[in-house]
Amino acid sequence: MSREFHRYDVIVIGGGHAGTEAALASARAGARTLLLTHSIETVGAMSCNPAIGGIGKGHLVREIDALGGVMARAADAAGIQWRRLNASKGPAVRATRAQADRALYRAFIRRAVEHQPNLTVFQSAVDDLVIEPDGRGRDAVRGAITNTGLRFEAPAVVLTAGTFLAGKVHIGETQYAAGRMGDPPATTLALRLRERPFVVDRLKTGTPPRIDGRTLDYSVMQPQPGDDPRPVFSFMGSRDDHPPQVPCWITHTTERTHEVIRGALHRSPMYSGQIEGIGPRYCPSIEDKVVRFAEKASHQIFVEPEGLDVVEIYPNGISTSLPFDVQLELVRSITGFGNAHITRAGYAIEYDFFDPRGLKTSLETKAVSGLFFAGQINGTTGYEEAAAQGLLAGVNAARHVRGREPWSPRRDQAYLGVLVDDLITHGTSEPYRMFTSRAEYRLQLREDNADLRLTPVGRELGLVDDARWARFEARREAIARETSRLSGLWASPANAAGREAVAVLGIELSRENSALDLLRRPELDHARLVSLPAFAPDSPVDADVAEQVEIETRYAGYLQRQRDEIARAQRNEDTAIPAGFDYAQVRGLSAEAAQKLERVRPQTVGQAQRIPGMTPAAVSLLLVHLSRPG
Ligand code: FAD
Question: Do 267 and 224 reside in the same domain of the chain?
């Protein structure tokens, strides 16, 4: 067979959420990329709930989009119920969530992958990686070998095997090897990787049974319509991209449900000790909720459609690995579910993941040059967390091949920076998901300004195409123009604009204010302000531009304080610690601090100071040592 069929710049293993973003980013960055995955049909498949976004997760989706990724556009093309969460709260925690049509979402991702220049797909299971000494005392990845013995070569490989590595499905006492229900596990690859110098452990996650929606009684449930107007995820998107919107429903477990669960706990693989892996704390199974919150008589369940053309619904809130007969009984005890027909059983899955402290900020493994890990295998849970890591690993794999410096955002630049820094500094003992509370600079890291934070760097990295760049520049200019226009318009108790403002807007005005100053007042928003003829623009201002001007003006004081804090912290953040640095040389450093540093091997002093238990004194000693000449 021809050489070009077997040789690439970058190989991505796995066509899930991390793998597709990795492959697309690598190809967009100019690397000849091969995506190797079990099945082309499952490219972009959603293993669990068909929903994208939510608090913290929506922020990641917008960041992926700002960097040219595909997730937001796929959600726009597949979203059948839309919510703007925390709409009445501060801008830092406002977030978008879309219930997606599973089939439309997958089709969009597959189309994006199939039409991406520089990207080739080959369907196959990968059983091993080719890893050889690089001649400089390190191991380097050279390619991958499939289960049929085909050998593909590349100087960079991104592994995104999700829940498939030594995956084991549990339903009650029954357990079998699988990557997720209906898909094969990656058993041989998991064994081969366990022979390598990676720290491997087990995690678990679970999913609820699916129900035929025609067998439910919606008259006893509470409808939950989507928002109108519907939000849009992508900075390139519009409402016209969305399919029709359908409602979700809310129902509840009953006393009977809890009785059924309590009576069957001894048959639960979680409680019988059959499952060793730790599950996601924030997405507990229904049996977990009944045990942990024993005082609660009922738990809320969101009844969510799986798509426009299918009858299945996803009962969000009853993930379970109880035996099937128990699942049937518990499902039928839920309000409105008396005649429910289960179409697929709920289950838990246990899988191998790698201690993310073995990764650099680029998501390259410290142990093997050119080998990158992304997604669920790094201890995270969720499509958005996986996709964000995939994009980062993909672009850095492409840069590695060209000998370019890796790129990764800092904690003050992106949730992606928070995610990676948390993982590589702290590791994780349970599936990690994103929350806004994880970001100390969350007022800077809003959904609404993800493009302003990241699209310029995405452009430099080769990830942002001309159309996106043109749209971005137009938006950035419109924001600057409107800010400057409003700062040049004045209202005083003596002038016409001021008198109009007092009369029409009902505000008090004791001195001269610019229109921008007036926007700082909580009772005024942009729309009201520009409704005054004196402040009206020549042409209408887009809602997203108005929102940006409003937020940046209203929170200017807080934002500036945060920027000053970031600038102070930046000094340590930029102080690099050489690879292979010997902590024993640092005079006065305690054995405990040295051990902690040795364990994580931080790349910068900033990362070192975030290691749990690291004292300011230890950080100063390190800084003093590093600042010494020679
Ligand atoms: P995946 O989406 O799993 O994709 C992995 C891809 O790699 C697949 O295409 C697979 O075929 C391919 N692959 C694997 N090994 C090989 C190989 N050796 N050769 C070739 N191809 C390979 N997330 C939540 O946020 N909340 C939840 O409650 C939740 N519950 C879940 C329940 C279940 C049962 C499962 C399975 C997942 C659940 N998830 C949940 C997790 C969510 O599905 C993942 O976070 C997300 O899919 C991870 O994306 P990924 O790209 O890392 O991996």
Answer: yes
